[in-house]
């Protein structure tokens, strides 16, 4: 199953969520693969240093998914290729449905309507908290979509 995570800039939440899902899927030998995109991404921007640091601290080593990550603006090809599109906020979900109404059935929020806070510009502790939230939400989602 291909999962697309979507946030605003594609430098924090969605790439961290994709890295978490890819890590958990590999560890659990699950047939899932994640990608990420942003509604207003600046194409080619790297993941934030704080995102890299949060993953490095939580899992040890260099987070390969994020080290080479470059922000990408969500497009029809991304949505069409995904089996599930998981937004970080309800506002993101609504905008995705507005842009891609034919895909509405596979667009949801990662936390079932509850927003994942944006840590951008809030320092390392906020990124650690967001990563913990993402990991718990991804684990819950994987339990429902094995």
Please explain how this structure is put together.
The chain is of the alpha/beta class. The protein has one domain: Rossmann fold (3-Layer(aba) Sandwich), CATH 3.40.50.2300. The protein contains six helices and four strands. The protein has helices at 13-27, 49-59, 64-67, 76-81, 90-99, 124-144, and strands at residues 2-7, 33-38, 84-87, 107-109. Strands 2-1-3-4 form a four-stranded parallel beta sheet. Helix 2 crosses helix 6. The longest helix has 21 residues, at 124-144. The radius of gyration is 14 Å and the shape is globular.
Q: What is the total number of structural domains?
A: 1
Strand content: 5-15%
- SSE run: EHEHHHEHEH
The CATH superfamily is known as: Response regulator
Strand arrangement, major sheet = 2-1-3-4
Average pLDDT: 94
Number of helices: 6
CATH topology: Rossmann fold
Give unreliable regions as ranges.
Answer: none
Helix content: 40-55%
Count of DSSP E strands?
A: 4
Task: Kindly report the oligomeric state of this protein.
Answer: single chain
* CA gyration radius, whole angstroms: 14 Å
Shape annotation: globular
Provide the CATH top-level class: Alpha Beta
Q: Helix/strand-derived class?
A: alpha/beta
What is the level-2 CATH architecture name? 3-Layer(aba) Sandwich
Please outline the major beta sheet: 4 strands, parallel
Q: What's the end-to-end separation, in Å?
A: 9 Å
